[in-house]
Amino acid sequence: MGEYITLKDNKDFSRLYRRGKSFVGPVLVTYVLKNKSDNLRFGITTGKKIGKAVRRTRSRRVIREAYYELYPDIKKGYDFVFVARGKTPYVKSTVVCKEMKRQLLLAGVLKEG
Fold first, then answer.
1. N or C, where is the chain less crowded by C-beta within 10 Å?
2. Cα–Cα distance between 99 and 66 in angstroms, integer?
3. Looking at residue 3, what is its pLDDT?
């Protein structure tokens, strides 16, 4: 397993919101943008709308879990921001994983096969 690179700077998130292509689903919103490196980088945002800290933390955890599962199948050289939705803390990580896979397929960033 490679090392996961997370987005931490506000400017990175802003860039994805502005320039990235977004894919919306009931439990997840995904922003995708090609980066200049050969790395995969990702960030997760959970707003106050999701609920209190426990729910937001759970949302981040299930999203991260789904990302790690799909990581080996994602083409290199992209940045992602995953945004939790109101339903996110209430669903299992498999549901989030399925939705994330669907969105990444639409984005055309999953390897064939």
1. C
2. 9
3. 78
d(CA 3, CA 104): 20
Burial of 79 (0-12, 13-18, 19+ CB in 10 A): buried
- With helix as H, strand as E and coil as C, how does the chain read? CCCCEECCCHHHHHHHHHHCEEEECCCEEEEEEECCCCCEEEEEECCHHHCCHHHHHHHHHHHHHHHHHHHHHECCCEEEEEEECCCHHHCCHHHHHHHHHHHHHHHCCECCC
Which residues of the chain fall short of a pLDDT of 50?
Answer: 1
